[in-house]
Amino acid sequence: MKPFGELVVSVYREGNLAPISGAQVEISDMNGNGVQRLQTDEFGIIQTVALPALPNRNNRSDNTSGAQAVQGKYNVTVKHPRYETVRLEGVRILEGSKAIPEVHLSSVRSEGLPVMKTLKLEDPEPPVVKIGQNPFNISELTVNSHAIVKSLKLPMSHHHVPYHHNPHPPIGLTIPETIRLHVFPKEGTNEPVRTVVVKFVDYIKGVVHQELDGFTEDEAIKANIIAFVSFTLNRYYTDHYRNQNKNYHITNDPSVDLGFIERPTMQEPLVRNTDAFFSQFIEYPGHPHFPFLALHCTSGCANEGKLDMEQSRILAREGKDHVQLIKQFYGQNYNPRSAAFIMINNQFYTFINPLKLGDSGGRVQEIQTYLDAIGKSYGLQVLRRAVEENGRFGEKTLKVVKAYQQYVLKWKGNKITGVVDQATWYNLLTNYYIAINSPSRNDHAFDFPAPPPPARLEAQTPTGELVVSVYQKGDLTPIPGTQVEISDMSGNIIRRLQTDQFGNMEAMTLPALPSDIRSENAGGAPAAQGKYIITVKHPNYEQVRVEYVKIHAGSRAIPEIHLTPARMEDTSAIKTIKIDDSKPTAVKRPENPYNISQLSIHPQLFYSTYKFAHGYEPNPHPVIGLVIPDTIRLHLIVKRDLITGRLIRTQARTIEVPFVDYIKGVLHKEINGFTEDEAIRANVIAVVSFTLNRYYTEFYRRQGKDYHITDNTGIDHDFDEHHLANAQEPLVRNIEEFFNKYIEYPGDHFFPFLSQY
After folding, report:
1. Buried b / exposed e along 225-263 (16+ C-beta atoms within 10 A)
2. What is the DSSP code (8-state) at residue 45?
3. What Gene3D superfamilies does UniProt report for this protein, alphabetically (predicted)?
4. Which range is most confident: 3-17, 143-157, 579-593?
5. Band of the pLDDT at 459, cuts 50, 70, 90?
6. Separation CA 697–CA 328 (nearest Å)
7. At residue 296, does pLDDT exceed 50?
8. Other Cβ atoms closer than 10 A to 703
9. Sign of dihedral through CA atoms 727, 729, 731, 737?
10. How far apart are CA 443 and CA 379, in angstroms?
11. CA 652 to CA 707: how far, in whole Å?
12. pLDDT of residue 5
């Protein structure tokens, strides 16, 4: 008998969750043959469709995860006359599961040119052999919970009740808002290695869709999710990679960490259980607030103290629950434990107990407020009826919560309970923030007349790419629904876009600066081609305008814009960031690079002020040169443009800069426009070596100066203060990969050479 699964497609506006009704959804097989055509309802959802599915086997094979699978994979094309067409390729329908892809549409431009955006969904990779690790690593605990709490804003009174009695909760009890993930490309592709910031829950969902492909047994899914969360929190709280001088918490290498899919076909059983259990971890024996490094395998490790995923499915079918499964694989003294806090929108929230019919009080009123704001923002009047009960969980609230679970969460059958459990609460809270931070469906603030189409590019015109990321000031919390306006140097608007849930706009191709960026045009009067003005607007934040972002031929500009909340008395404030153009480098003054005699920082003195990484216990004072400092003191001098003579900086000052940010600022001035990876790496290593030499010889401090290095291009390196707003992907990627490498001094390989160029 042919296996079947279900498909429900939801269609929303780009940047938020405003549903688009009347959108046409065309489902076709992988050969392009039409299967079914439907329309979305008032919630932006099509009716549930049953389709032939990929078979649900006990172990994944090339048939279920490889690119050659035809049955059970589909293309979904979404069309609406007022929006650009989007096509999803490779939507996977799994036996006994429900696929719930969301499609976000951008408003069509006024010129009416046919535009279709194609998104290729990823298949899970085949399982790999796991490298053995010691799970008993509590000695590696390095993250201080006090430091985390002090850096974060406690919630205001109308949010969930803050943890008043202990302002410094024990370690392990807080789920971080985001996690830094190092992404290695798939084999056989030319994609770059990169580091991305992902919301913690979205990361777990990406892991679950890779590791648990095809799972439909709820208790097995729950047990595996808890193990994945525990492993991830262990990596986070032990600073496993940061202790190796890496600027991330975890990788997508499944042999040592957890597999991860950035763009999966979302499956309802996996999403629902992740939302319900992402706060659960396995406590380390004897240390209930420290997450255990829970290891797992695909199969065959049931007696090795690891979670055997395939065996967990079999046992779940036999009636074992997730707690029994965890104890069976890890031991009777390993218990699931719930975190007490989660960071959302840079604020602490306590997890709630379930709210149900008959309850009343402040937490019920909060839920009713969330529902009302979501319903008001997106024109869903049915969700606004709960607020009428004013803190009482009555029949109206029950019906509204059930409607939310059915139409927004896409739950079905006995899963639609009307009880506000953790999954419902978390989804309501995150969607509430999206609603209040994004324009509503009825707010036409972003419905601008589209600009005229850009002139057709000649074949010889060089092009590059632009991707703008928008975050809150002071952290990396993405701001979805932000308008990003790109203009040429004359102020003519080229295009307006909105940021997605990750705070990113879609990549766009633009005319670029020629490869020879060290020309007079690049350093003098602004070149017209390849330089742009970016204006970022959001109703809840001050506007930011960046002049001028450079697009280099064959490269990708990835500027980050950080927005400050708007003051109530002035919502029209605009901050202008003027990027100082690269210019011909000044002639360097020659120095003697063989300066080891000037070494002045003693290793014992240095290590008395730094907490070194785990693993150095046999030698508490490792040889000098092996540690990258956290920050560096940089002296910015009064500066004139070498071509125009105008003052760029009118007053000298000294600032403290994170070491990696300093290297990025240097390279975005010194080799701006480079795209050749090997050349970039060589320059990165040379600049790092020069900088470490200045640092360890105390070159300037021995002259009575209170800094390590300057931006005087005659003797040190130039520095771009606004490198975040001028970031270039090839430079950022290679700097983050090679900032810990230097050139060894001849005959003394622990001392960095004063490398000049």
Report:
1. bbbbbbbbbbbbbbbbbbbeebbbbbbbebeebbbbbee
2. B
3. PGBD-like superfamily/PGBD
4. 3-17
5. very low
6. 57
7. yes
8. 7
9. positive
10. 11
11. 13
12. 94
Each as own residue / partner, the long-range contacts of residues 388-395 (CB below 8 Å, 24 or more positions apart, any chain) are 390/365, 391/360, 391/361, 391/362, 391/364, 391/365, 392/360, 392/364, 393/355, 393/356, 393/357, 393/358, 393/359, 393/360, 393/364, 394/357, 395/357
Round to whole Å and give the CA distance between 625 and 224.
42
What is the amino acid identity at position 419?
V
DSSP characters for 496-521?
EEE--TTSBPPPEEEE-B-S-TTSHH
Please name the residue that has the structure tokens 């799994």. 94
Task: Please enumerate in sequence order all residues whose Cβ is within 8 A of that of 180, keeping only pairs 6 or more positions apart, or say none.
Answer: 195, 196, 197, 247, 248, 249, 250
For residue 538, give both structure tokens.
């959001």
Residue showing tokens 């094979």: 61
Instruction: In whole angstroms, give the CA distance from residue 384 to residue 373.
Output: 8
Interatomic CA distance for residues 38 and 505, integer angstroms: 29
Asked whether 113 and 454 are in contact (CB, 8 A), the reply is no
Most confident of the ranges 89-93, 670-674, 739-743: 89-93
**Which single residue is written with the structure tokens 């094309």?**
77
Among 272, 276, 312, 274, smallest CA distance to 296 is for 312
Closest CA to 307 of 298, 316, 315: 298
**Angle formed by the axes of helices 268-277 and 200-211, to 10°?**
140
Before 426, cis peptide (omega within 30)?
no
Relative to beta strand 631-636, strand 709-710 is: parallel
* 29, two tokens: 């097989």
Question: Residue 311 has which token pair?
Answer: 């065996």
Stronger pLDDT, 520 or 491, i.e. the higher one: 491
The whole-angstrom separation of Cα 325 and Cα 318 is 11
Q: Residues of the chain with pLDDT > 70: what percent?
A: 80
**What pLDDT does 443 receive?**
39
Most confident stretch, 131-135, 313-317, 586-590: 313-317
Residue 76 has pLDDT above 90, yes or no: yes
Which DSSP string do the residues of 525-577 spell out, in sequence order? SPPSTTEEEEEEEETTEEEEEEEEEE-BTT-EE--EEEEPBPBTTBTT-EEEE
Q: How would residue 328 be classed by pLDDT, with cut points 50, 70 and 90?
A: very high
715 by DSSP, 3-state: which?
coil
Q: How far apart are CA 72 and CA 69, in angstroms?
A: 8
What's the pTM value of the predicted model, to 2 decimals? 0.59
Q: Average pLDDT of 715-721?
A: 87
Cα dihedral angle (314, 319, 323, 324), rounded to 10 degrees?
Answer: -80
